[in-house]
Design a protein that fits this description.
The protein is α/β, with parallel strands linked by helices. The protein contains 14 helices and 6 strands. The strands form 2 sheets. It has a 4-stranded parallel sheet with strand order 4-3-5-6, sandwiched between helices. A two-stranded antiparallel sheet has the order 1-2. A hairpin with a 2-residue loop joins strand 1 and strand 2. The chain binds adenosine-3'-5'-diphosphate.
Length: about 290
C-alpha cells in the first residue's frame, strides 16, 4: 500500500506520537523479549542506524558474509513498534527472525518499553545525541520521510521541538528518562553520538566489553572500515535507499554525520532562546551534552 497523506501527531499517554507507532500497541507491549536480545534504543536521529550496522557486522558478517549485500539493514534490525502501511509489522518481523541474537531497534521512551525487556534482562544500548544537532537532523528527516508529519518551516519546527511536539515526544524527557533508568540498570549501556564521532575505536571497545564480545583483529578492522560515514552512505543496504517512505530528492538519509551542523541552521536569536529554555528543562539532571568537538 502506498503512503498517501502524512500522518498527524496526537497525544498518546502524555507523549506525542503518530498512529504508525501506536496502532499495534497491545502486540508491542506483549512482545516477548529474550535474554540474548540486544536492543538499540534512541530518540530519533541519534545514530540508531549507525549502531545497528555496527552490531549486525559484529555478530553476523563472518558467519554469513552475503547477508550484508542481500538484506536491507532495516530487515536485519527490525523496528519494534513500527506499523506503517506497506511495511511488515516490526513485532512480526522480530518473531520471524531465525538468527541469534536478535538485534532490535526502538525509539520508545523508557516508560513505554515492553516489560519483558526488564524481566529478561536483555542488553540495551541507548545512544543520545545533543539536542541542537538532533533537532536539525530530525527536521531534514521529516522533510524527506512520507511516514512522518509535515515539518513546516525550520523556525516553527524548532519551536515544536522545544515543546516536545515531535514523534516520540520530548527529546528532553527521552534522554533524561533513559539516563535515570541507567543509574539502576546494569543492562543499559548509555553512549553519546558525539563520543562515537570523536573516538570511534574507544566507543567500539566499550561496546565489545558490554556485550562480552572479543572480536578478532581482522573483524575489528573490517567493522571500523565499513561503518565510516562515507562508506555507509554508499552502501545501498544501509543508507536508507531501500526505504520506500524516503524521498532522496529532498534530502539523503545519511545526511552529514557531523557534530555542530546546528550552527548552519540556528540564528543567534534562536540559539539564545533555545539555550534559556534548555537550562530550565535540564536543570535537574547531571546529564551533559557536547554541541561541538
Ligand atoms: P545527520 O542527519 O546529522 O547527518 P538515526 O539512524 O538514529 O536516524 O540517526 C541518523 C543520523 O545519524 C544522521 O545524522 C546520519 O547521517 C547519522 N549517521 C548515520 N550513520 C553514521 C555514521 N556511520 N557516522 C556518523 N553519523 C552517522
Amino acid at each position: 500500500m502506498e503512503l498517501t497523506a502524512r500522518p498527524t501527531l496526537f497525544d498518546f499517554h502524555g507523549v506525542s506520537m503518530t498512529k504508525y507507532f501506536t496502532d499495534n500497541w497491545d502486540k508491542v507491549q506483549d512482545f516477548e523479549a529474550r535474554p540474548d536480545d540486544v536492543l538499540i534504543a534512541t530518540y530519533p536521529k541519534a545514530g540508531n542506524t549507525w549502531v545497528s550496522y555496527i552490531l549486525d557486522l559484529l555478530y553476523f558478517s563472518q558467519m554469513s558474509p552475503d547477508r550484508r549485500d542481500q538484506i536491507p539493514l532495516h530487515q536485519r534490525v527490525p523496528f519494534l513498534e513500527m506499523h506503517i502501511p506497506g511495511f511488515p509489522l516490526g513485532v512480526d518481523e522480530l518473531n520471524q527472525l531465525t538468527t541469534f541474537p536478535r538485534i532490535i531497534k526502538t525509539h520508545l521512551p523508557v516508560h513505554f518499553l515492553p516489560k519483558s525487556f526488564w524481566e529478561q534482562n536483555s542488553k540495551i544500548i541507548y545512544v543520545a545525541r545533543n539536542a541542537k544537532d538532533t533537532a536539525v537532523s530530525y527536521f531534514h528527516f521529516d522533510r524527506m520521510n512520507r511516514a512522518q508529519p509535515e515539518p513546516g518551516d525550520w523556525s516553527s519546527y524548532l519551536q515544536r521541538f522545544m515543546e516536545g511536539k515531535m514523534v516520540f515526544g520530548s527529546w528532553y524527557e527521552h534522554v533524561t528518562g533513559w539516563w535515570e533508568k541507567k543509574q539502576t540498570s546494569s543492562n543499559i549501556l548509555y553512549l553519546f553520538y558525539e563520543d562515537l564521532i570523536e573516538d570511534t575505536d574507544k566507543e567500539l571497545c566499550r561496546l565489545y566489553s558490554f556485550l562480552g564480545l572479543s572480536p578478532t583483529v581482522e573483524l575489528k578492522k573490517q567493522v571500523r572500515e565499513k561503518v565510516l560515514f562515507d562508506n555507509m552512505k554508499k552502501d545501498k543496504m544501509a543508507n536508507g535507499s531501500r526505504d520506500e517512505a524516503f524521498d532522496f530528492k529532498i534530502s539523503p538519509f545519511m545526511r552529514k554525520g557531523k557534530v555542530g551542523d546546528w550552527k548552519n541552521h540556528f540564528t543567534a536569536q534562536q540559539d539564545e532562546q533555545f539555550n534559556e529554555d534548555y537550562e530550565r528543562k535540564m536543570k535537574n539532571t547531571h546529564l551533559q551534552f557536547r554541541t561541538a568537538l
